[in-house]
Amino acid sequence: MNYSDLHRIYHQPFFDLLKQARAVHEENWPEREVQLCTLLSIKTGGCSEDCGYCAQSSRYSTSVKAEKLMAKDDVMEKARAAKANGSTRFCMGAAWKGVRVGTQKFDQVLDIVRDVSTLGMEVCVTLGELGGDEARQLKEAGVTAYNHNLDTSREHYATVVTTHTYDDRLRTIRHAQEAGMSVCCGGILGLGEGVEDRLKMLEVMSSFNPHPESVPINTLMPIKGTPMQDNEAVDVFSLVRMIATTRIAIPKAKVRLSAGRYSLSKEAQALAYFAGANSIFYGDKLLTTANPGANEDMKLLQELGLIPQAPNPAMEAPQADGQRALSPCVPAEAEHAGCGCH
Questions:
Q1: Does residue 210 lie within any of the structural domains?
Q2: Which of 198, 241, 247, 256 is catalytic?
Q3: N or C: which end of the chain has fewer CB within 10 A?
Q4: Is residue 314 part of a domain?
């Protein structure tokens, strides 16, 4: 969907936007289900990247301390607990620039993935940049979905992070898709961007072929010690407008109400669900920040007449539309010019 259409949709009267988004949601997701995902940091802190919002960067003085990769037995204990608690997708994140075939840490991650994939949950990982070989091995090990957010627009990106580029992000997404993994790709609101940046980011994501399987909509949780510690909070109506516009632009994706949900009232969360959110991170903690308690979430879902979605570990990745160009790995004017995608 192009920017002008997204701009028109986003800026229509609030209730008209909700009405349109709700109609799209009910057409594509009539079951009133919400996906419950658990997110575990399997390698915390000490990251070499300079993402301005992240407490795990080694460049900033925050309360997060660097830790080694978790032992497989410890990860499995967390995964079994997540399944017992009702989660249907288990997401594992590592604070790295990326992973490479043949390294000890990548071999350890593959070993962890193989065991987690036997539990009957969908398996998601977010490990930074991927090449084609790494993506194929993760898929073979049992990864259902790869998370790699765009964060913001191309134009605003350099004000958020300088140690990798927007095109690096797009290459990783392309490699994950070509390996047959679903892509979980979203953004963060509150990075100092404008509405136009949010819509340009959505324009890029909606141009992916195939579309992302899920789209996390995060709101910044300012962390003391990071460059964005004093950023202003995102207005609830701006968040809901973005969720509704995302639902319309990418109708078959799960739209995940992600980081920042801890600060939302029950009423604000209900409005987000109505606007098209149908996935949440479930459990008391995200990578390094607080999250609503599982009991609170289940109570709210019951009050709203929503039910947890069943796990689908054999889920097939979305298929490319043969009538559209494949997801880009670099800008169109430089497509395949030494990018390593093919």
A1: yes
A2: 256
A3: C
A4: no
